[in-house]
Amino acid sequence: MEICKPILEVRDLYVNFYTYAGIVKAIDGVSFTVCEGETFCLVGETGCGKTVTSRAITRLVPEPGRIEKGEVIYYTPYGKINLLELPEEKLREIRGKEIAYIFQDPAAALDPLYTIGYQIAETMVEHKTVPKWKEAFIKAIDVLRSVLMPDPEKRVKAYPHELSGGMKQRSVIGIGLSNQPRIIIADEPTSYLDVTIQAQIMDLLRKLKKEKKLTIILITHNMGLVAEMCDRVAVMYAGNIVELGTVEQVFKNPLHPYTKGLLRAVPNPLTKIEKLEAIPGTVPNLIYPPPGCRFHPRCSYTMDICKREKPRLVEVEPGHHVACWLYSR
Question: Which domains does the chain have, with CATH numbers?
Answer without folding.
Answer: 6-98+181-328 (3.40.50.300), 105-180 (no CATH)
